Amino acid sequence: MSTVWLLDLDNTLHDAMPVVFPRINLAMTEYVARTLNLPHEEASELRVHYWRRYGATLLGMVRHHGVDPHDFLRETHPFPDIHRIVRRDHRLMAAVKRLKGQRVIVTNAPMHYAARVVDALGIGPLVDGIVTIESMKFAGRIQPKPSKAMLRRLAAKLRVPAHRCVLVEDSVENLDSARAVGMRTVLVTGIGHGHRHPAARPRAGLGRRVDVQVQSFEHLPRKAVRTPHRAR
Q1: How far lies 74's CA from each of 69, 80, 108, 112, in Å?
Q2: Residue range 164-207, pLDDT digits in tens
Q3: DSSP of 136-185, one letter per residue?
């Protein structure tokens, strides 16, 4: 049975820090301010609070204010110019192509955004599917990463045991959940972790929080070949 690569999108396959994340954060703050009639500063604080508490601002807005999740996702990810922001990188395309097995994008972003980013990166023909936040729903509730239940259901839907899945992420919290359900884990550190003090950065290896750590996704295929599967 082949490996199933579960690939995060933002800050894993491309750098979302300079333009994408600031625009999403601003759009979310404006949505919260408009919907709840709050000043901009209070709306920003609430957005961050919900993100830290639930892993996604959307969950707090749905749970506490009854917003329509589809309306929220549509209004907070407006990127008609995404092809000018996200550039095609042939090194990334080559790295994705070298991964042996099934390749699935798994992102907490909405489909209309994720599909356009995948297209802009030029990796659409190389991936076998895109799993977005709209499909991370169970019993009427959206359960995005780092939900362990969602990751278990995803493996079941892909008809593969969890230990055959490898989650490639920039988020240690999401990787913790993947590891807890039996998946292998790869941490990409080059974008989101560079500001941390070296002593505070997560490390890979036996008994640590992640199995493999790479500076950028392009380094993954070489590491993946050398790294043995964890015993189960």
Answers
A1: 9, 12, 13, 8
A2: 999 999 999 999 999 999 999 999 998 865 544 454 555 555 45
A3: -EETTEE--TT-HHHHHHHHHHTT--GGGEEEEES-HHHHHHHHHTT-EE
